[in-house]
Amino acid sequence: VADVSHELKTPLTSIMxxxxxxLEGGYDEETQTKFLNVIASESRRMARLVTDLLTLxxxxxxxxxxxxxxxxxxxxxxxxxxxxxxxxxxxxxxxxSFVTADVPPVYADKDDIERVVLNILTNSIKYTxxxxxxxxxxxxxxxxxYIKIFDNGIGIPEDDIRYIFNSFYRAGNVREYHGxxxxxxxxxxxxxxxxxxxxxDSCQGQYTKVTVIFKSSPKTK
Length: 221
Hints:
By secondary structure, this protein is an alpha+beta fold. The protein has seven helices and seven strands, in the order ααβααββαββααββ. The strands form two sheets. It has a five-stranded mixed β-sheet, covered by helices on one side. It has a two-stranded antiparallel ribbon with strand order 1-3. Strand 4 and strand 5 (144-151) form a beta hairpin. Helix 2 (29-60) packs across helix 7 (183-193). The termini are far apart.
């Protein structure tokens, strides 16, 4: 609770500070836009945290209601990139997507799968030093679709990988970064509901590759 409260307080402080500054007036349009971008970015960070906490709580209590539908995985990845555009630009990352033709559609709750992709991509953005490179591959093996997100970030220590999907667990080399250790745990729980799975391959100081495999829509089998 203390860790999560801190994670909420930090962006709230930024939002209030920049909002109060804008209310004082007298700033040129370029400065106002810069301040508003910070407010928007921090607001989205808070929204994602709150959504993750609520979703995690619902899954823990088995009260999560799902609305399954068939959707295109490539389109969903594109939308996730758009939602994180400000964060990507802020760190100067080069993000490239490669979508294989004829990827089978996924049958699941679209919002849940979007949450999974956002969590993984957010980690790549956060834990990759400025001007890094992130590659997203969308393809399929047999009838199962997959997403692979590869970055040249700080990586994960070998001793931490086995615990990385535990709720509120954070690797030893990320303590200086904002975070609460919810994203990967929540992503794994979501994927289990839909018969999917997630795995991580990483080398500290070099790269991290996250692979997510989704069961294809029954209509494609």
